[in-house]
Amino acid sequence: MTEVYNFCAGPAMLPKAVMAKAQKEFVHWQNTGCSVMELSHRSKEFIGVAEKAEADLRELMHIPENYKVLFCHGGGRGQFSAVPLNLLPQGKTADYIVSGAWSKAAAHEAKNFGEINVIDITKQENGQTSLKPSSQWPLTADAAYVHYCPNETVDGLEIFSIPETHGVPLVADMSSTILSRAIDVNKFALIYAGAQKNIGPSGLTIVIIREDMLNQACQQTPSIMNYTLIAKNGSMYNTPPTYAWYLAGLVFEWLKDQGGVSAISQINQQKAQLLYKAIDESHFYVNHIDNHYRSLMNVPFWLTDESLNAEFLAQAQSAGLVALKGHRSVGGMRASIYNAMPLSGVKALVHFMQTFAQQNS
Ligand SMILES: *Cc1c(COP(=O)(O)O)cnc(C)c1O
After folding, report:
1. What is the 174 CA–ligand 1 centroid distance (Å)?
2. Does domain 259-360 have CATH number 3.90.1150.10?
3. Please, what's the b/e burial string for 316-345 (b: 16 or more CB within 10 A of its CB; e: otherwise)?
4. With 90 as the cut, is the pLDDT of residue 2 above it?
5. 306-350, pLDDT tens digit by residue?
6. Mapping DSSP to helix (H, G, I), strand (E, B) and coil, where does residue 53 land?
7. Whole-model pTM?
8. Residue of 96, 99, 153 best suited for mutating to test ligand 1, as the one with most atoms within 8 Å of CB
9. 254 catalytically annotated
10. Domain segments of the chain as ranges
11. What is the CATH code of the structural domain delimited by 17-257?
């Protein structure tokens, strides 16, 4: 079988080494005679797996001691509800920065739970999609928090500098950017991320919360979404997604072996530069995002002759380059190039794109 590179936006590809290790220990994990999947979440064996995963994530992201790391259910969208339920008291407002599809969806969900101020920061300029700088965001002075999405997975748009909120707690949906580049966790009150892009399999959601944000959940918060309760119980208030937690742990170990976040971030830069360069240098492909905000993780592009879309996808598939079809809301193509995508995968894609362009120009 030819080597397959999977450019899916999520669930996304996992590192080969992680898959091989998981396969090897799938039936008999260490000396238990059982699969990790069959272990009680309260067994000392699983607690060992869980604690190691958390310690490795803390090390990778330099998470300070005054933050809790929660291993939750419910994906990114679960957090769209959990954040306002836990952090937005009656009589207060939360600012929602809208920079694309996911932050818009987060704002839409939050409206069900409290007073939301939506701040659309997108702008069209010279035929490109761009964003207003954070100095121009009309933030509410005494907001309960500011929510934003540093990487818009659908739109292919990334905000690289951390917004200045003048003391208002900053909440970030990092589902598609977590662990891809270094960030200063101290600048955030809460970070959340669905696992299926840069961490592991779907079904697990990571929440990193500063301790002073606990203990303010509204009365109606479902217990399985209550950060305080989850934190108090070491993410085992109810049965956590144990196998996904274990696999996330393998991904964290793998990432440490690669040299950690700063090392992978350099490869991510290289991958994205290579791909954007190939798009910009051809008249055959186009990307509409302002250079300053182009995502390192999700690269949407369009064929200038869209009648060739189906042929492009079919030939790419035959060449082992799969899941390149763009999100249904924006069309075109999208290459998601998370941590697990090796440089060789992006090189193979660029080579294919150049050959396809030559043959069809
Ligand atoms: C994928 C994604 C989500 C949604 O995640 P689910 O786990 O499907 O709920 C939310 N936010 C961002 C930025 C995403 O990329």
Report:
1. 9
2. yes
3. beebbbbbbbbbeebebbbbbbbbbbbeeb
4. no
5. 999 999 999 999 999 999 999 998 899 999 999 999 999 999 999
6. helix
7. 0.97
8. 153
9. no
10. 17-257, 259-360
11. 3.40.640.10
